[in-house]
């Protein structure tokens, strides 16, 4: 079963089990969008999932656990127990998690900084650009660029 199909089936099951129409659970998610979800014409974003879960008085993770349960044809308990074991295994079960991603420097930036440091260190020792080019095995244009470049430029 595809995830889209599982999501549609679970959404419809929860809605009808609670005696609600598509219109009843529509809020920021429109009735037509809910209809498209149930008709397998679109898939839900995390934001849509959160809105629908709220309209159904569920935690968004509970809704996704039910969807995954239908998708894998396992009980919701099995899905949640597996999730608990996985999170415990990577030691994140009881952690406070970041609310936004860190800015991670790319390898290219790290490599460029290392080359700049090497060029500046050799320049400070009195080596010429040609010597530095041979010593580091980098092109003359790169040595020239790092020769005159300031640290924060």
From TrEMBL:
**Molecular functions (GO terms):** DNA binding
The protein's matches in SUPFAM superfamilies, at most eight in alphabetical order, are given as:
lambda repressor-like DNA-binding domains
Query: Source organism's superkingdom?
Result: Bacteria
Outline the extent of the HTH cro/C1-type domain.
11-63
Signal sequence, renumbered to the chain: none
Which is an annotated Pfam family here? HTH_23
**Which InterPro entries does this one have?**
Cro/C1-type_HTH (IPR001387), Lambda_DNA-bd_dom_sf (IPR010982)
Output this protein's name.
HTH cro/C1-type domain-containing protein
Q: What organism does this protein naturally occur in?
A: Pseudomonas fluorescens
């Amino acid at each position: 079963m595809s995830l889209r199909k599982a999501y549609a089936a679970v959404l419809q099951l929860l809605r009808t089990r609670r005696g609600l129409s598509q219109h009843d659970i529509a809020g920021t998610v429109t009735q037509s969008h809910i209809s498209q979800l149930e008709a397998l014409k679109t898939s839900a974003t995390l934001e849509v999932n959160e809105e629908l879960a709220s309209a159904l008085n569920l935690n968004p993770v509970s809704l996704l656990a039910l969807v995954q349960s239908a998708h894998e044809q396992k009980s919701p308990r099995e899905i949640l127990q597996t999730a608990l074991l996985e999170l415990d295994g990577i030691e994140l079960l009881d952690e406070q998690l970041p609310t936004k991603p860190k800015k991670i420097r790319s390898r290219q930036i790290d490599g460029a900084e290392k080359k700049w440091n090497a060029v500046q260190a050799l320049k400070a020792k009195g080596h010429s650009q040609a010597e530095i080019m041979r010593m580091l095995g980098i092109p003359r244009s790169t040595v020239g660029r790092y020769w005159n470049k300031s640290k924060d430029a």
